[in-house]
Task: inverse folding
């Protein structure tokens, strides 16, 4: 695994095409890791959907279309399958089929494969990680095993590192502490980034995480990307939003890294305005021609002891028209994909 400093990364014209202007000074700025294929592991890495056909089968054509969309949009990469991908619903065969579909698309955008499994079966996760390393993935990602001690978490990620020989990204949820993440990064050098969605505010603890890791850990966010701009102000180097406007958020990131903060702020405003339109996230990839009208997005089952979420009402023709109108009237000039 290679790392490069942020200024050099901009100057070398890496795959995500960041501008070459000088970066703002950040005392604890992390280095930017690169995959074995030379792709920068920083910027926007949306969590890919798991689109299914009406009969419930994973739609592999739509998986391919999703990755082509990411490449056309010059988005840094994609991460699949994680929570928004409904990873808990995927069979072993579906995981392999989905991974193969994404990896079959050649282009500048990185592919990060999620390898956590039901019950956090370490042997099965290691098999997934090994497959990722052998078949051209750029990195692997995993949630931390729930309720595990620091020693158990370190052992888990050491196994993934050994199996994959790839950079590792950690998705922190619940009560995973800064101490745990710092200890993990010290024990497992392959851990290069944290997608932070812990109960404690990632915005508040981001600078602490960066300082205590000595700039080793890249700080990524989740939560749909809704706080990405203030996160960048605090030194975050990436976000894992939904796919639909990932090309817009990537431009926001590029502008910010080039020192064009006002333009980045305005780009982020376009993203946020669109996301307030009812059902926009449900329909945007259909409206943008990526998924078919009858695509069904899988969702994870409810957590143990919690009621199932009610099925969403069918999106109306009025809502569809409103989403298409906003894309055409307000966002068309900045839609790269």
Result:
């Amino acid at each position: 695994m290679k790392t490069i400093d942020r200024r050099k990364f901009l100057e070398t014209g890496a795959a995500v095409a960041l501008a070459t202007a000088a970066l703002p000074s950040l005392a604890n700025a992390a280095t930017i890791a690169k995959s074995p294929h030379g792709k920068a592991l920083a910027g926007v890495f949306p969590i890919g959907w798991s689109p299914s056909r009406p009969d419930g089968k994973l739609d592999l054509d739509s998986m391919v279309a999703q990755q082509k969309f990411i490449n056309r949009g010059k988005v840094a990469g994609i991460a699949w399958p994680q929570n928004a991908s409904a990873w808990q619903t995927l069979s072993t065969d579906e995981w392999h089929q989905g991974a193969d579909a994404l990896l079959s698309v050649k282009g500048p955008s990185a592919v990060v494969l999620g390898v956590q499994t039901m019950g956090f079966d370490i042997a099965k996760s290691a098999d997934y990680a090994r497959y990722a390393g052998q078949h051209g993935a750029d990195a692997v990602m995993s949630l931390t095993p729930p309720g595990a001690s620091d020693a158990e978490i370190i052992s888990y990620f050491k196994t993934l590192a050994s199996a994959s020989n790839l950079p590792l990204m950690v998705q922190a949820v619940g009560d995973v502490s800064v101490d745990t993440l710092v200890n993990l990064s010290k024990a497992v050098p392959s851990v290069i980034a944290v997608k932070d969605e812990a109960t404690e505010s990632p915005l508040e603890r981001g600078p602490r995480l960066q300082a205590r890791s000595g700039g080793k850990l890249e700080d990524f966010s989740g939560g749909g990307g809704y706080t990405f701009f203030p996160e960048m102000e605090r030194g975050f180097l990436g976000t894992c939003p939904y796919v639909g406007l990932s090309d817009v958020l990537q431009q926001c990131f590029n502008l910010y890294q080039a020192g064009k903060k006002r333009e980045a702020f305005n780009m982020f405003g376009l993203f946020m305005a669109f996301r307030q339109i009812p059902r926009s996230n449900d329909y945007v990839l259909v409206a943008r021609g990526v998924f078919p009208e009858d695509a069904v997005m899988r969702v994870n089952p409810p957590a143990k002891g919690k009621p199932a979420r009610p099925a969403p009402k069918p999106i109306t023709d009025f809502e569809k028209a409103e989403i298409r109108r906003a894309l055409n009237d307000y966002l068309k000039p900045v839609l790269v994909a």
